[in-house]
Amino acid sequence: MDNRFFEKTEKIGFVLARILIGAVFLYASYDKILHPQAFAEAVYNYQILPDAAVNAVALVLPWIELVAGLCLVTGMWLPGAAMLAALLMAAFTAALVFNQIRGLDVHCGCFSTQVTHGPANLWTVIRDICFLAVSVYLMVRTVVFPDRSVRKAQARSL
Amino acid sequence: MKSRKTIRIKAVAQTGAIIVIACLLAVCTNILRDSGLPLVGDWSADSRFADNSGQSLVIGLTEASRMHAENKAVFVDARPESQYNQGHIKGALCLPWQEADRRFMEVAGRLEGGKTIICYCDGENCELSHELALFLEDMGFEDVRVLVNGWTKWRRAGLPTQKEDRENG
Questions:
Q1: Total domain count, chain B
Q2: Could you tell me if A119 lies within 8 Å of chain B, comparing CB atoms?
Q3: Which of B15, B41, B125 sits opposite A55 (nearest CB)?
Q4: Domain that includes residue B146, residue range
């Protein structure tokens, strides 16, 4: 009974988590796809990529977010989408933390390309770490520790 | 064990497929867009700090300091007032970009007179001076320039600065 309840709760949690991260990615891609020049400026201001790579990354990244977001929401290609989401969130969080440490006052460019949204701060980092944690859970659940393995592990622990 | 390995291979393949699809979509929409981005952009200072017609607004430190010495330019500090009070180029006016609309009339009289207007802020990527220069061009001033990373460059060169009422250099 306990085992079945755990499995059911975990399954619901998993579905909610993948829809949440999928929706976050879809929302994040929208403004960047509409305003590639403004997003390229946001990417440039991070001062991490070489100048020659800025435009290419600014053009492709929002579409990766869109396709990965669609996959997460619909449940298609889940292992790949979850792995990509975790990698992207790790990269975004690392970039934000890196610039916070070196004191660069950059605009996040996370959900909006408008500078009126204010520069990235500690809360932006905390928010990204939360999304990263959920993305890592999705990756572990779909790639490292998929369904059958969960049940086997539980059976062994009982 | 085998199924786990298969899932990992599948995950890597799917990740690659998502990236390829995203690249194709990005390239296709960029081609179809009226003002598509070049795949390799020009991020030089001359290109970034240009006016609406694409003309560079950048002025070099040598030229700016010469104009300062000959009193041929008005310097305008685009940083917040608190930073201006901590130190600024000698004789520079304070017009923080965020308050430009509200405070423009305070300095308008001193900007007129046909001198070159040189806007500056701090940092290679500081956009405040550029935004302020575009604002002043919109207000009808024709000879407006941007001294990129002006405050740091000016201080490092040991050129005359001012801190509140005291003068340095």
A1: 2
A2: no
A3: B41
A4: 45-168
Residue B48 C-alpha, separation from nearest chain A C-alpha, in angstroms = 9
Token couple for B31: 């081609």
- What pLDDT tens digit does each residue of chain A (158 aa) get? 578 888 888 889 999 999 999 999 999 999 999 999 989 988 988 889 999 999 999 999 999 999 999 999 999 999 999 999 999 999 999 999 988 888 766 667 777 766 555 567 788 899 999 999 999 999 999 998 876 545 554 455 44
B31 with B99, same domain: the answer is no
Give, in order, the Cα–Cα distances in Å from B103 to each of A60, A62, B1, B91, B137.
41, 38, 70, 18, 16
Same-domain status, B73 and B135: yes
ipTM: 0.87
To the nearest whole Å, the CA of B16 is away from the closest chain A CA by 8
pTM: 0.76
| Whole-number Cα distances in Å, B122 to A34, B44, B83, B154 | 30, 17, 10, 10
- The reply to whether B10 and B67 lie within a common domain is no
Residues B34 and B50 in one domain: no
Q: Give chain B's contact residues with A (Cβ, < 8 Å).
A: 3-4, 7-8, 10-19, 21-23, 25-27, 29-30, 33, 35-41, 43, 125, 127
Residues 6+ apart with CB under 8 A from A149: B4
